[in-house]
Amino acid sequence: MLQTSAVRRTTTAALALTVSFSLMACNNNTAPVPSNITSVTVSADKTSLAIGETAQAVANVVVTNNAAKTVTWSTTNANVATVNASTGEIKAVAVGNADIVATSTVDTGKKGKVTITVTAAPALTTAKISFRPASAPTVSGYTVNTGAAFDGTSGWVQEGTKTPLDMTANTRYRDAAADTTNIVQGLEPRQYGQLQMQCGTPTTGNPCSAGTLTSGAFEYKVVNGKYNVTVSVGDSDKRNTNSLYAINVEGASAIAAFAPTAGQFKTGSALVTVSDGFLSIDAVGGKNTKLNYVDITPAP
To answer: Which region is the signal sequence (predicted)?
Structure first.
């Protein structure tokens, strides 16, 4: 009897210990900690891009308990649009659609996205512009600019500003047939017209007798991209040598500090990239610069 009672007591104790461990195991199945990230939403300053253009994505992260609002960026189609994983800068690569995704660094289950549509890049601009009065003969293949103030598409502004400037009184046309003595004969038709960009700064110190004395710069609307730009300066009137020609295109020198002799012309070119939609031409560094024509062609 004593042995049987001992066995029963041992068995009872073992069962109690097993139940105790089972209860402890059940108590360890605690509920998951709720996320401190409520939501992630994404926007972009532009959702329709042409190939080569960029946009900026922004994540709005709603949190509790002062959780970090940081995200990492990714794209669902890097062949169409890429994104910088840290900054959210988007670049359009090829035609199509791609989702730009922001993922919370605190809770990777919380994400937001914006859809980007990429279209083909527009064709670059080609233009030929001749500067002369409205009354002068036109030049085949060239659009005439008569010195009108900038109108949002093309025209003249005060040098160093975007303030429109009327320079119609600064255009000139040299009629070779009417003056065979003073006007150089046999030039190209586009060289007989000019616009005096800096009437107030002749090298002789004597300003122009007609026209605004405020120095002007030319603005021309183009599709953003890379261009070869050729310019010509000069005066076919052999009596006029009071200039020091300089032309800059998008800040790049096309003609630098050229002092003409009688009836002398100078052409120059610059390879430039336009990113703001306007090609800018100025004469900074020159004096009484006289612009004849501008050729704008897409660069390879």
So the answer is: 1-25
